[in-house]
Amino acid sequence: MGPVPPRRALIIVENNSVPFDRRVWREAVTLRHAGWEVSIISPKAVRYSAGGTAIVGQDAAYEVLDGIHVYRYPLRAAEGGPLGFAQEYLSAFWQTLRLMLRVWRERGADVVQVCNPPDFFFPLGWLCRATGRGFVFDHHDLVPESVEARWHGATGALLRAVALAAERWTMRAAHVVISTNESYRAIAIGRGECMPDRAIVVRNGPSARLAAGEPDPSLRRGRRYLVGYLGIMGPQDGLELIMDAISAAVVEFGRRDVQFLLVGDGPMRPWLLEQARARGVADFVTLPGLAVGMDEWLRYLSAPDLCVAPEPPTAFNSRSTITKVAEYMAMGRPIVAFDLKETRYTAQDAAVYVAEPSGRALAACILDLLADVPRRTQMAADGIARARRFLSWESQEPQLLRAYALAWAASARDPG
After folding, report:
1. Same domain for 185 and 250?
2. Are residues 189 and 227 in the same domain?
3. Do 385 and 17 meet the contact criterion of CB atoms below 8 Å apart?
4. Same domain (yes/no): 144, 237
5. Is 373 exposed, middle or buried (0-12, 13-18, 19+ CB in 10 A)?
6. Backbone angles phi, psi at 386, to 5 degrees
7. Phi and psi (nearest 5°) for 140?
């Protein structure tokens, strides 16, 4: 008998580019190290101009990164109302289907993993089942709750009903659902009607080997303190509150010794640029854009005295694991965050929790913590310890590989 051919995985993600999507990239690397041949389909990166226009990046349509085959397609992010999202998702679906069939022809796939949002890729799950392939749903976001927060009235109710149906169909099509936390797993079992032994928690977490470097003093712009935010800049991420907090710190509290470093891109970044100028605080805000490479990301995350997770208390945010929180902890950054269920579970003593969902309350907690050096030192140590012992990606890898083994065994391609 000849050697057993490697198992082949295909990961599909629509709302982020690869390798910028750190969860998807970590999953792909884990699978490759476990002996799988891995392909990924994602859109090209999207940047936002100062005027708010989405600009598709110049990423390669195909390249091999660290032995992983990455296929990309141009996709303009939705602008406007529900019609814009429908156009985005329809375009993404057909381009993904085209590339998926290409991957099947060129490289093959035994297990296909689809990441949300959106939840409209369930026909790909049906196709996987019909062709004897395993299908894994990677449950990143609560789309129905996101819809509910964005749209109201009759339109919101209709869109939420559609989102709930799409979520349920996707989960029912999957051989395995992997969830980012126990709250999401409960939804997979309840709303998604997933069998408990097929609902597996694979948390977001940075590598245990991740460590801060020497802080770059130039990022402080000559000021004593530096407060950081590193993440996506979308409507649900609390950027309005962080801008309110900056205004309160500078204007109301009269603090001229704090610089705010807001790293990332998304539809809210042009708004932040405009608001910083309009409120007269532009000199206190640095908005460098997206940190694409790891060296650049480490430079930014090694510098702040503390970091902020400004997501407000909504049904979506309270049940979601905020990826940036664990990353802040791994880098020894004390955190100021609103009191959300999953954020508190993740950070525990590494964060100060703001009870009132307002920019002024956020600013007050930031300034209090900046003044308390011993507390910041202890919070940093607590965060590093918890991140390495309980939240590291290495501790999640066995769960991911178990999910893939179940999907493989459930598919018609199981050689046993």
Report:
1. no
2. no
3. no
4. no
5. exposed
6. -70, -40
7. -85, -40
What are the residue ranges in the chain where pLDDT is below 50? 1-2, 414-416
Strand, coil or helix: what is 64? strand
- Say which amino acid occupies 165: A
DSSP label of 388: I
Query: Is the separation of the CB atoms in 178 and 134 below 8 Å?
Result: no
CA dist., res. 20 & res. 221, Å (int): 27
Residue 403 · residue 172 · CB < 8 Å: no
- Cite the beta strand spans of 128-246 per DSSP E: 134-139, 176-179, 199-201, 225-230
Q: What is the reported pTM?
A: 0.87
* pLDDT tens, residue by residue, 49-76: 665 556 666 789 999 999 999 999 998 7
Residue showing tokens 């490697």:
6
**Alpha-carbon distance 154 to 40, whole Å?**
37
What is the pLDDT, as a whole number, of residue 211? Answer: 82
Longest CA span, the chain? 76
Helix 359-371 vs helix 239-247: crossing angle, to nearest 10: 60
Question: Which class for 133: exposed (0-12), middle (13-18), buried (19 or more C-beta within 10 A)?
Answer: buried
Strands 258-263 and 285-289: parallel
Q: Is residue 1 part of a domain?
A: no
Task: Give yes or no: residues 224 and 364 share one domain.
Answer: yes
For tokens 């508190």, the residue is 344
Q: How far is CA 138 from CA 42, 172, 180, 382, 393, in A?
A: 14, 13, 8, 29, 15
Segment 1-18, tens digit of pLDDT: 445 567 999 999 998 899
Are the C-beta atoms of residues 380 and 348 closer than 8 Å to each other? no
**Domain of residue 339, residue span:** 217-391
Residues 6 or more apart from 398 whose CB is under 8 A from it? none
Beta-strand (E) ranges in 237-376? 258-263, 285-289, 306-309, 335-338, 351-354
**pLDDT at residue 373, as a whole number:** 97
Asked if 172 contacts 192 with a C-beta cutoff of 8 angstroms, the reply is: yes
DSSP calls for 219-276: GGTT-SEEEEEES---TTS-HHHHHHHHHIIIIIS---SEEEEEE--STTHHHHHHHH
Please count the CA atoms within 13 angstroms of the CA of 78 that sit on its side-chain side: 19
Count CB atoms within 10 A of the CB of residue 53: 11
